[in-house]
């Protein structure tokens, strides 16, 4: 579960809750509630934490034990490129 992961990551790096809360632009007690599982952390903040700790979101959520950030999906890029092309005339 992610509360354990985000607390472990923070403690392993000797960072205070206040420092992480400032990075996320939330109150320290709000971040404390995320770590303690009292409040669900919004997906936007999970993504920011992922970037902050340089781990993938799946790791934060406890879905994998592989912490390394994954390269962008080729499927996403190919689909995305379809939408970025100019429409045919």
UniProtKB/TrEMBL annotation:
One Pfam family from the record: HTH_3
Domain of life: Bacteria
Residue ranges of domain HTH cro/C1-type in the record: 6-60
Entry-linked PROSITE patterns: HTH_CROC1
Keywords, in A-Z order: DNA-binding
Single Gene Ontology MF annotation: DNA binding
SMART domains in UniProt: HTH_XRE (SM00530)
SUPFAM superfamilies found in the cross-reference section: lambda repressor-like DNA-binding domains
Protein's recorded name: HTH cro/C1-type domain-containing protein
Organism of this sequence: Butyricicoccus pullicaecorum
Phylogenetic placement of the source organism: Bacteria, Bacillati, Bacillota, Clostridia, Eubacteriales
């Amino acid at each position: 579960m992610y509360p354990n992961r985000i607390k472990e990551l923070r403690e392993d790096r000797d960072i205070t809750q206040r420092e992480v809360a400032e990075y996320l632009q939330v109150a320290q007690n709000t971040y404390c509630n995320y770590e303690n599982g009292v409040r669900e952390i919004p997906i936007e903040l999970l993504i920011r934490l992922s970037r902050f700790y340089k781990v993938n979101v799946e790791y934060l959520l406890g879905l994998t034990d592989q912490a390394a950030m994954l390269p962008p999906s080729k499927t996403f890029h190919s689909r995305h490129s379809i939408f970025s092309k100019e429409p045919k005339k």
